[in-house]
Amino acid sequence: MSQRERVLVTGVPDFRARFFVEYLLANEPEAQIFCLVERDRSEAAEQFVLALSQSDKRRLVLLYGNCRAIDFGLSGSEYHQLGSRVTRIHHMSQLTDPRADRHRAESHNLAAAEEVIEFARQCTPLKLLLAHSTAWVSGNRTGVVLESELDAGQSFRLPVRESLAVAEQLYRCAMKDLPIAVLRESQVLGDSRTGESDRDDSTFRWIRRLVRAPELPAWLPGHERCPLNVVPLDYLVAAAHRIGHWEGAAGKTFHLTDPDPPSVRRAVEMIAEASGKRPPPARLFKNPLAKALLRAPGLGRLTQDPRALLELLTVDVRYDAQHTRLALEGTQVQCPPLESYVGALVRRAQVESATAAASPDSEVYDPL
Length: 368
Description:
Blueprint: E1 6-10, H1 15-27, E2 32-38, H2 42-50, H3 54-58, E3 60-65, H4 76-83, E4 88-91, H5 102-122, E5 128-134, E6 143-145, H6 159-174, E7 180-185, E8 187-188, H7 202-212, E9 230-231, H8 233-244, E10 253-256, H9 264-274, H10 287-295, H11 306-314, E11 317-319, H12 322-328, H13 338-358
Parallel strand pairs: 1-2, 1-4, 2-3, 4-5, 5-7, 6-11, 7-10, 8-9
Helix pairs in contact: 1-8, 5-6, 7-13, 9-13, 10-11
């Protein structure tokens, strides 16, 4: 990479953004990386930097501001200097908390999209803005969803996902005069090599509870034939990095999803096998109960994000990824099957379960 390559990453110190920055440092040895960090998260960001090597620290710059504020909350000189230097933007700061109400979701995701687009207009050397989004902008759609599709009459149970869909509309409008690519990411699991995962992620907590249980329960909410749309984090960041340097990326949307997802039943079977448990009974899932839980107005107060997990287990949707296949063609960046890394996830979940057992008060009560 040229020494003139300078990348802005928002969202640090969130788990995905930290992982992505580490990947950039390892794979772009000449690049300089700017991280836009909210001031109330400065301590966590600085702890992240302390763990880096001296050579990596010299190439990393923490900027304290707010991606939702005018000029990112930076001084005028900081903002204009940054705009004269940044060549690529990875906007990874997004609110995904399924408990967020509409006002909170829109004030974060839409305001951030507007400010990032405005900043991109000030970046004279900008090659590409990559807006990290979610495949769940498909809402309640079923069947096959194309990368070119956005507004198809879908509805949303979670305002936060609807806000991301509206944010994508903003990016699509700005594509007319800015080099922008949208990355729709599937539900993200941990690193396929180490199993390291975001402890707050609903899917990882679900795996941890299955691992922690003496045996699988007699039933689980969900639909056993639904595809489980998940990807490992290391695939996601490698694919996002590759797409960021693909000449045909501007103006396109990319599904970062498993091209051949396992069914929910098969995923539970693999978790059971990896954790030494008996396979699930013949009729494991009770879909009417799942639908009732999705409608329960008070469920969100009992657990952190039940609706996000239940949608993952009940919505029969698949994502076509033609643009992603083209961008990754000829590279070694491919989404591994869940079967190849479920063992690493289970081992990590076992470690997390042992830690949680030592301090049970840290566990969130979860009726599922």
